């Protein structure tokens, strides 16, 4: 029998996940969607049951597994409810807003492995190929990862700390995963006074350095890029566009307007891997765990604390 999935939150992310479970993910079926806005919930339900709140959805006997795509501040309570009922839960990043809340989740999940965190870049074919090249020794010892992460336009609700906690958190997780490392210090430069641009240099316990350009209002499109520089070579993402348009003595490459276009395959592969793991009862090796979610939130918290001073030491907060 397929896995009965309930999706909490029918915004951009919840709506996309709901469609994946309704249409594309094998071994799963969408049985419920919740959102305080009935119009949004209905539009993402594809005939599944609609709830106004997340808790009754988790408690419903019809729901076997839960995807949380509610606002960040609601994550902790929803994930804890799923753990209490023994239901697997895939929570969009961040796992929770504070280190204390993440720690509570890690403790409740210990030995049960019910919690996964939606750091979907771990399933992106480009990042995976880069990691495979690195792990196979094809570029020698890693020295530096150059990352850039640009959004076309910051959402209205974006504030100064969200550039770290909501957006750069992806680089924090993916570079830990790529290098299998922890961070030891950071230097941070805020560029301009709009709070939408940041240059970060993170040092790691294995000596490699991670540099990240964050720009929330890059205007031309959504653009994520990374290159790992090793002792014997480098491995870099190709531009993600699939086609080139040639016209009027020029060649054009398109960019997606947002992260859904760029990372659609990653979300699909992640959700499929999660369903497979839930059904087999065996954890998916590549999926971010509650512990990864705790570490990411801990680093973000320290980086936000260091922003005014332009940097400082980092350590895993457990
Ligand atoms: C956004 O808030 C996200 O959640 C996306 O995952 C990220 O890629 C994007 O850059 C953020 O602004």
From TrEMBL:
GO terms for molecular function: nucleotide binding; oxidoreductase activity. Residues 4-118 form the Gfo/Idh/MocA-like oxidoreductase N-terminal domain. The keyword Oxidoreductase applies. Residues 127-235 form the GFO/IDH/MocA-like oxidoreductase domain. InterPro entries: Gfo/Idh/MocA-like_OxRdtase_N (IPR000683), GFO_IDH_MocA-like_dom (IPR055170), NAD(P)-bd_dom_sf (IPR036291). Pfam families: GFO_IDH_MocA (PF01408), GFO_IDH_MocA_C3 (PF22725). Keywords: Oxidoreductase. The keyword Protease does not apply. Belongs to the Gfo/Idh/MocA family. PANTHER family: BINDING ROSSMANN FOLD OXIDOREDUCTASE, PUTATIVE (AFU_ORTHOLOGUE AFUA_2G10240)-RELATED (PTHR42840:SF3), NAD(P)-BINDING ROSSMANN-FOLD SUPERFAMILY PROTEIN-RELATED (PTHR42840). This is Myo-inositol 2-dehydrogenase/D-chiro-inositol 1-dehydrogenase. It comes from Paracoccus versutus.
